[in-house]
Structures are given as C-alpha cells and as structure tokens.
Amino acid sequence: MIALEEKITILPTLFVEKRDGRRVVFDVDKIDKALHKAADKVMDVTPLVEKRLNDLTERIITEIHSRFPQGIKIYEIQNIVEHELLEAKEYALAEEYITYRTQRDFERSKATDINFSIHKLLNNFSTKTRQLSMKMLIKTVMSLTLSVI
C-alpha cells in the first residue's frame, strides 16, 4: 500500500493564490494540520480517527488537483475542505473548522480596517503638517542627543 505522503508527491506542482495576490506552492501539510487542529478540539485522535483524517486529506487533495490544475485561490481550498468534511458526515469537525475559519476572517478584516484607517490618516496630512512634524522630531532627537552628551 502506498503511503499518503508518497501519493501526494506524485502530483504535479500546484500554486495557491493568497488573499494578498501572492502565489505560493500548494502545501499539503497545511490542510493536514488544519484538520488535526480541529480534530484535537472536538474528539480524541485515535488511530482510527488518524486514518479518517488521512483519508479526508487525500480526498481533499485529489479534488483540488482535479478541479484546479492551473492553480487555486485560498478560499476555494477552504470551501473544498468544508464540503468534504460535510460529505464525510464529520459534522463536529466541520463545525470546528468553519468556526476557526470565520474567526480568522473576522480578525483579518479588523486588521485590514485598522491598516486602512492609519493609511488614510497619514495620507490626509498636508505637506506643511508633515514638515512641521519632521522638524519637531529632529528637535526632539537633537535635544535628547545633547542631554546624553
């Protein structure tokens, strides 16, 4: 019998498009780790559960490679994982995976909102304000330097 790792290495290289537009090589371990992380929270990971997780990982990877041979977006991977978990009637595992994904999406959204707000504030400063801020910064650095000497 061929091990999961051996089957996976036979597949061609696939690229994943991240949310920020970067393209990275598809990493099978990330799916395996996500499933194990969810399983650890909702069940005891016995050898039988380990086999089910390996089978699920194999089905997910096969689905990804068959449907998206030219590349895949990160959210498509997540949708396939959810679909396969529900198809396998792994409802508790699916619920934990979906909850984690939703939480991460929310955190990512908050971080993006904060970064956008900061960027907007910085861009709203006039040239004059920037010049004054720079002068104040230089004066502060100089006075600190002189007080040390």
UniProtKB/TrEMBL annotation:
Q: Which residues form the ATP-cone domain?
A: 14-108
What keywords would UniProt list here? ATP-binding, Nucleotide-binding, Oxidoreductase
What EC number(s) has UniProt assigned to this enzyme?
1.17.4.2
Question: Per its UniProt entry, what is the enzyme's top EC class, as one word?
Answer: oxidoreductase
GO terms of molecular function: ATP binding; ribonucleoside-triphosphate reductase (thioredoxin) activity
Enumerate the PANTHER family for this protein: ANAEROBIC RIBONUCLEOSIDE-TRIPHOSPHATE REDUCTASE (PTHR21075)
- The name this protein carries in UniProt is Anaerobic ribonucleotide reductase
Q: Which organism is it from?
A: Streptococcus pneumoniae
Q: What gene codes for this chain?
A: nrdD_2
